Amino acid sequence: MVEGMTDLSDFIRGLPKAELHLHIEGSLEPEQMFEFARRNRLALPFKSVEEVRAAYAFSNLQDFLDIYYQGAGVLMTEADFHDLAMAYFRRVAADGCRHVELFFDPQTHTDRGLPFRVAIEGLLSGMAEAERTLGVSSSLILCFLRHLDEDAALATLKAAEPWLDRLLGVGLDSSEVGHPPSKFAKVFAAARQRGLKLVAHAGEEGPPAYVWEALDLLKVDRIDHGNRALEDPALVQRLAAEGMTLTVCPLSNLKLCVVDDLANHPLKRMLDLGLRATLNSDDPAYFGGYLGANWTATAQALALSRDDLVTLAKNSFTGSFLPADRIEAHLAEIDAYAR
Ligand code: HPA
Ligand code: ZN
Questions:
Q1: Is 25 in the pocket of ligand 1 (CB under 6 A)?
Q2: How far is the CA of 68 from the centre of ligand 1 (A)?
Q3: Ligand 1 contact via 23 beta carbon (within 6 Å)
Q4: Coil, helix or strand at residue 160
Q5: pLDDT tens digits for range 80-133
Q6: Is 224 in the pocket of ligand 1 (CB under 6 A)?
Q7: DSSP E strands, the chain
């Protein structure tokens, strides 16, 4: 175990790491919500930042999603998306994050009338500035909303056509139970044909069968969350044998009641089972902490060793979609730091 809270936070801050599960709309802080509402002349159903924070008490994923989609309604211009991204990158740069593969939900914005280009151009411009000024590299994953139908996802992939060379991949998020991966087999096949990487949320609230479907029907390169895979030993064996990365989000799991206590979080068990688990923040403005806070709280609650933390840092790069030479360079940096 790493001794002392300050030692632990300092060790974690200095450890080079990547974030592989971050919804940029989930980095919208209440203060920013008021700022964007003001500049876009929109009314909010909240009177104060405190009132917004008080509303962030969730008993499941859907509770959160309802307020998350409502919050995203203040994002109107490319500048809003640019500023949202830069605010996030400033925070994770301070947490020792070197690389981010971030999600965005274009349908959340096109369905309320924004042209497709607004979110993606604003985000790409924020990402370029973050790389230039903070030294944090990043790439973008377009998520389909699984509570909508596959035709809507196909239309979204078509709308993304002009930006395909600037997209890393596609993902699948929103309400999981009742919306299995099989519902999106066609659009994932189309994305694969276009050379995009494939990821999907599976096994956050949904059963192990959804994780099997993500692997076998969607042919994903990474599983987001994957907690409930642990209920199925054959699935655990498959994930370990394939070296499949799981993007695990402990504070999110706590806030959405996927786990009852951080001390009972399965992350340590995943590592002990030989799974390539990574540590991420999911929707940091809603779940009580950015990347560093997730690392520190989890390390404390699970009494993670320095070796565990180094493994998690390495997993965050080996599980990324960076080119092999850049992964090697980050791993060498971690080794140098740990020594
Ligand atoms: N799960 C599913 N959909 C989401 C999440 C999540 O944790 N965050 C934002 N959209
Ligand atoms: Zn997520």
A1: no
A2: 9
A3: yes
A4: coil
A5: 999 999 999 999 999 999 999 999 999 999 999 999 999 999 999 999 999 999
A6: no
A7: 17-19, 97-104, 137-145, 169-173, 197-202, 222-225, 245-248, 276-279
204 carries an active-site annotation: yes
Mutate to test the pocket of ligand 1, among 21, 28, 143, 173 (most ligand atoms within 8 A of CB): 173
For the chain, domains (ranges, CATH) are 8-338 (3.20.20.140)
- What order do you get walking across the sheet with 222-225 strand by strand? 17-19, 97-104, 137-145, 169-173, 197-202, 222-225, 245-248, 276-279
Ligand 2: distance of its center to the CA of 233 in Å? 24
Measured in Å, residue 173 CA sits from the centre of ligand 1 at: 5
The Cα 224–Cα 202 span in angstroms is: 6
Cβ of 252 below 6 Å from ligand 1: yes
pTM of the predicted model, to two decimals?
A: 0.97
| Biggest CA pair distance of the chain | 54
**Mean of all residue pLDDT scores within the chain:** 97
Q: Which helix (H) or strand (E) holds 168?
A: none
pLDDT tens readout for residues 227-248: 999 999 999 999 999 999 999 9
Query: Would you say the CB of residue 204 lies under 6 angstroms from ligand 1?
Result: yes
User: What one-character-per-residue DSSP string does 276-323 give?
Assistant: EEEE--BSHHHHT--HHHHHHHHHHHTT--HHHHHHHHHHHHHTS-S-
